[in-house]
Amino acid sequence: MLHRLIERVRGAGEVSGFEAYLSDLQRRGYTGVPTMHEAYLDYRALIQRENPYWMI
């Protein structure tokens, strides 16, 4: 929990939205990171799940 808080504080002032989501995925260095298109589709699904009335 504290680790997540520190990551958010470190990321203050950075871009938000999809660019932040994609850079976070790439920065972690995991294998099998989705392509830009796959990440966009995942991000879009997350946003629509949060607010189903807001369509991208």
Q: Poorly predicted ranges (pLDDT <50, ≥5 residues)?
A: none
Total strand count, please? 0
What's the quaternary structure here?
single chain
Distance between the first and last residues' Cα: 31 Å
Task: Characterize the largest beta sheet: strand count, sense, and whether it forms a barrel.
Answer: none
Name the average pLDDT: 75
The value of Rg in angstroms is: 13 Å
Helical content, roughly?
Answer: 55-70%
Number of helices: 3
Helix/strand order, N-terminal first: HHH
Structural class: mainly alpha
Report the β-strand fraction as a percent range: under 5%
Characterize the overall form. globular
Structure description:
By secondary structure, this protein is mostly helical. The termini are far apart. The chain has helices at 2-10, 18-27, 36-50. The longest helix is centred in the C-terminal third of the chain and has 15 residues, at 36-50. Helix content is 61%, strand content 0%. The protein is globular. It contains three helices and no strands.
